[in-house]
Prior knowledge:
Elements: H1 30-39, H2 44-47, H3 51-64, H4 72-86, E1 90-94, H5 100-111, E2 116-121, H6 124-137, E3 143-147, H7 150-159, E4 168-171, H8 177-187, E5 196-199, H9 202-206, H10 208-214, H11 218-226, H12 240-243, H13 247-250, E6 265-275, E7 281-292
Helix pairs in contact: 3-5, 3-6, 4-5, 7-8
Amino acid sequence: MSHSEHAQFDNRKAYVPQEEEGTSFFDDGREIGLLHFVYGHPSIADIRGSPTGVLKAIDEYGRTKKYMMNVGEDKGKIVGDLIGEVKPQTMVELGGYVGYSALLFGDALKRSGGKRYFSLERNPEFAAVIMSLVDLAGLSDVVKVIVGPSGDSIKRLHTDGLLDHIDLMFLDHYKPAYTTDLKLCEHLKLIKPGSVLAADNVIKPGNPPYLEYVRSTVEAKRDRYEKGESNGTEASGFADRTKNQYRAREGEEKLSTEIKGNPNLVYESKLIKSFEPTGIPDGVEITRCVREESA
C-alpha cells in the first residue's frame, strides 16, 4: 500500500481554498503579507531559531489569511521521510516560493547530517522572503538561496564548482521545466546512480511528460534520443494556467532545449498519493537512479 493510499485528509488543518482560475493565487502581495504576519506574531520570541515554529506560523497564515502554494504537511512528510532514509549531503530544490520546503527539508537535512541545501528561486522577491525566514529559523548555515532561472542557476553552480553532484532533488517549480532541468542535471553528471528525485504536483496540476520520462526504459529513451528528440517538451503540452503561471511577472519562459540528458540512466519510479494543504488530492513521484547502462 502506498504512503497514503487509504489516508484521509484532516480538514481541520486545511488552508483556505486556492482562488479560482482567472484570479491571482500568488504574487499579489500575500508573500510580503506573510512576512509581516510572521514577524508580528505574538509568539515571535519562541519562533526565532525554530524551523518548526516558523513553519507553524506559515501554516497558520495559509489557514486563516491567504492561500499559499506550499508543499504542506502531508506531502512534506513524504519528502521528510525520504531525507531521513537517503541522508543526503547535498540537496537541491527547484522552486522555493516563500521557503516552506527550504525550512522543512533544510531542517531535516541538517538533522540527518547533511551539509548544503540549495533553494533555487527565480523571483527575487520570493527569494528575499525565503532568506528572511531561513535566517529567522536559524538555518542560514545550511540553506543557500540562489536567485535566477533554474537552468541558469544549475549551470552557474556547476561551473563555479559549488555543485558537483545531487543526492536528492525536489522539483516544485515551473512544470514544463521539470523534464528539461532533469536532463540538464543528467548532462552535467549531477544526477547519477544513487541520486533520488522527488517531484511535487504530479497529479495537481499534473506533469505527464515528466512522468513518462522517469518511467521510461533505457531502450525507449535511447530510441527517442537517436530520433533527435529535443530536451523535454513544449510548454504548449500543459494547461494555460500552468504554462502561463509566471508570464505576467517573468515574461515568456524559455526552456533549455539544447540538452538531451543521459538516456542510459536507469530509474525506478513510483507515485505516492497525498494531498495539497487545501485537502485537494495530489501526489509526489519518487524516482531513484539505480544504475547506468553502458552505451
